[in-house]
Amino acid sequence: MLPQRFATRQTILNPTGFAMSPFFRLAAASAAFLMLPLAAISPAKAALADPFTVANVPVDVTAASAAIARLQAISQGQRDAYSILLHRLTRKSDWAALPKINDETLETLVRSLEIGDEHTSPIRYIAKLTVRFRGDNVEALLSGDNIPFSESAAAPLLILPVFTSAGGSVLWSDPNPWRTAWGQKPEGYGLLPLSVPLGDIEDVGTIDAKAALAGDPAKLAKIAQRYDAGGVAVAVATATTNGLSIRLHEYGEDTGTPPTLTVTGAAGPDLFSQAVAETASALEQTWKQATLLDPNHPAELSLQVSFANLKDWLATEQELQDTPAIQSLNLTSFTRSQAEVTLHYLGTTQGLALTLAQRRLKLADQNGYWALQRMAPPAADGAADGAKNAPANTPAGAKPTPHLAPALPPASSERP
Question: Of 12, 210, 304, 329, which sits most exposed with the smallest number of CB within 10 A?
Answer without folding.
Answer: 304
